[in-house]
């Protein structure tokens, strides 16, 4: 059976950019752009029943910006991974983007080939951080920052901590299951429990929690190979 392509959505108010990016992505046999929109509000109105694997989202748009889209998607039970791709990229926005639900935050100056690699990492591993972004997060995740979770690391079970450490190594559900000799369904249960206990919205939030609570060192986080 032929492998299903990863379904991509693009939301950006620059129509030419959207068309060019769609044409480029569609040339890669791993991906298929199934939805495009030049308005955040239009995207939310048109995608109530649309299933996307990865959404490439502009941060600032004339009608319904990226923050509104992320806020709306966070209210839904969706598996869509969000890559914020913006000309307004600032390293200082990194923490906010992750808390809003972004799985990657990139500048529009990124090379197209690298964007494809980031899409692959986000789809298969749940998040992407560059070396530079990890350095920024080290500075942002100081002990002076307020806690945004209801449980401490002492409330996590030993197995949940094992799963959390492997999530930070960008292991997939199957890889974690094989490593710990448990079923993929059990891994997903542990992930769900981790997200409930830590009050985060996605895998990127779990990584932040792990660093902030000393469960992993920021240097130990596995990055996408360049």
TrEMBL record:
HTH luxR-type domain ranges (all copies): 149-214
SMART domains reported in the protein's UniProt record: HTH_LUXR, REC
UniProt entry keywords in alphabetical sequence: DNA-binding, Phosphoprotein, Transcription, Transcription regulation
Record-annotated Response regulatory domain positions: 7-123
Residues that bear 4-aspartylphosphate: 58
Domain of life of the organism encoding this protein: Bacteria
Family matches, as Gene3D superfamilies: 3.40.50.2300
Pfam families cross-referenced by the UniProt entry: GerE (PF00196), Response_reg (PF00072)
Recorded coiled-coil stretches: none
CDD domains, per database record: LuxR_C_like, REC_NarL-like
Name listed for the protein in its UniProt record: Response regulator transcription factor
Organism: Chryseobacterium paridis
